[in-house]
Amino acid sequence: MKLFDTHTHLNVHQFDEDREETYQRAKDAGVEKMIVVGFDTETIESALAFAESHDDVFAACGWHPVDAIDMTERDLNYLEELALAKKIVALGEMGLDYHWDKSPADVQKEVFVRQIQLAKRTKLPIIIHNREATRDVVDILKAERAEEVGGVMHCFAGDVDIAKECLDMGFYISFGGPVTFKNAHMPKEVAKIVPADRLLIETDCPFLAPHPYRGKRNEPAYVRLVCEQIAALRDEPEEDVAQQTYDNACRLFGLNL
């Protein structure tokens, strides 16, 4: 069974002591490909370094909305230069996050828009972060015609109607650990209705570990638990969901199957 973890942060300090061991556990669990996501200068550099040292690992680079206030013109130019790197397959994560108050909403929106425009110039898909900002995220994607590059709604937490809006724009819907939580009714309902060819899975490790590891450090090997849950929700064989999400990820990110 082939699995593709489309959103990991193996580049962060939580894995400094056992990064290679964690990677190997993922391989042993059937994770054949993964994307390591950088969200500021330090994590972008470490994501790219890790991807370049592993044939089956790829990287994404973007500027996280929480830190939007820190992004400079130089940083944006840096992202544009990096987009040419062979191992960079997407821009992101980018978007809006109204949970934390470090960066004002207007600054977040400006940085988000500029990264979408960058994606259009570089012709790379985008990885969307949304926390407590759903309506504004979707409205900006529509206003900027983000469907021209497409991408993925990472760790989707919206309802069925929002999912349909995103699907209408050509976006993929990705589910992580929260879909396995007992009280996560909305993600479970959305997972049932997403077309098979728009479905992705992820861990967002080290965050949001799936049941029964909730509250502990997440890692790419646990993406199999996400796959199992979605297969159960859709009443489909786990192997079929694994293969479909693997193929979908390869198609979105321009990779060989």
Automatic annotation (TrEMBL):
GO cellular component, alphabetical, reads:
cytosol
- Per the UniProt record, the source organism is Aureibacillus halotolerans
TM regions (residue ranges): none
* Residues bound to a divalent metal cation 2: 129, 154
Listed InterPro entries: DNase_TatD-rel_CS (IPR018228), Metal_Hydrolase (IPR032466), TatD-like (IPR001130), TatD/YcfH-like (IPR015991)
Q: What is this protein called?
A: TatD DNase family protein
Q: Which domain of life is it from?
A: Bacteria
User: Which residues does the record give as a divalent metal cation 1 binding sites?
Assistant: 7, 9, 93, 204
Stored Pfam families: TatD_DNase
One GO MF term on file is: hydrolase activity, acting on ester bonds
Query: Which keywords label this protein?
Result: Hydrolase, Metal-binding
Record flagged with keyword Membrane? no
